[in-house]
Write a structure and sequence with these properties.
Elements: H1 3-13, H2 18-38, H3 45-74
Length: 76
């Protein structure tokens, strides 16, 4: 799915499906946290590890979000 398509589907389903809304909000939060880490010129090993953990969580959430959106689109 393209980012524009995902945003369109999130906008469509977030108001009627709390799981979509929660997954999207979590995705945005993780994205901001990663950007904060990536904005640093130098990161400590602990920060690198935390960033990797957040990236993994973001990917897992994104996978769940895409599956949920595909399911909602298939069931309409």
């Amino acid at each position: 799915m393209q980012p524009e398509e995902v945003q369109k589907l999130v906008d469509k389903y977030a108001a009627i499906d709390p799981e979509v809304k929660a997954l999207w909000e979590e995705h945005v939060l993780f994205k901001k946290q990663i950007e904060k880490f990536e904005g640093k010129a130098v990161r400590s090993p602990a920060e690198e590890q935390e960033m990797k953990r957040i990236k993994k969580q973001k990917l897992e959430g994104k996978t769940k979000l895409y599956a949920k959106l595909e399911s909602l689109e298939a069931g309409r």
